[in-house]
Amino acid sequence: MRDQQLLFTRRKKLPYSMTMVNRKFYNRLNFYRKLFQLFSLGFLILIPVLITNQIYAIIGNLYSVTIFGIDIVDPAMALQTTLLTREFITVLIAGALIPIIVALLFGKVFCSWMCPFNTFSEYWQIIMRKIFPNRWRLIQRETSKINPKPLTYWVILIAFFLLSLIFGFPVITFLSFPGILSSEISHLIMGMGVGIEILVVFGVILAEGFLLKRYWCKFICPVGGLLGIFRTPKTLRLNHNEGNCSCGGALEPCGTSCPLGLAPKHEGLYPHCFNCGLCIKTCEKTGFGALSFGFGKNSKDKKN
Predict the structure, then answer these.
(1) Does residue 303 fall inside a structural domain?
(2) How many domains does the chain have?
(3) Residue 33: is its pLDDT beyond 50?
(4) CA angle 174, 190, 127 (to 5 degrees)
């Protein structure tokens, strides 16, 4: 109660600092993201439907897809193939450029806006919150103000590629859950059945739901892990303006809304954060727009 009173008092004193346009955009940002997620799932369903009707304008899956003659390749798959074949395949490298450019500009938005594994995980988490509300509230109260060190993130990523290189086995192929889900969706629609890999994917989704954690996306996924490499000082990032922050005491509403359990206002947010924007939406409801997206950071922002 004391924290809530402090929050209300500080909110009245803070100046209005964001334009109405920005506030409306951030309030609807998650709605736009959900639409894009559903569009992405529809796109994965459309591919095998077109193929079964002998329309080959779009073929492939999230390992590699060709859209009207333009090849788009998962950078993690491109790197794995390069390591295993010990050759630079021009078409493969060129196909990886589009997702790399997107990551350079917007960060790991593929993970939060397009990845089917993340989409299924998010909806399963919602279901688990309804089933175990007490456990969910307990985890909310335990929101950390310290982001995980990136060392674990990079060690796991490098280890996967080293294993592929040492054993000559495509480890990344069997750890790319977006690729597995997209290919299994195609196989199912085309009447080819599904493989055992799908059991592993949904097993991880179910396990994370019971734990109410997102360790796979946060630390392990090699697809998002490699995309996290392509950051520059100008890549889209979360900025925190301390002067507008209306949270007091132990209140961290933005942290409780983060699907990865990160601390949006504190250092070390990247490379884990995938720019979903949920913390910004929460900040719009509970504060005065202290969090926002921007290309680069200004002098008022805390280091991330």
Answers:
(1) no
(2) 1
(3) yes
(4) 60
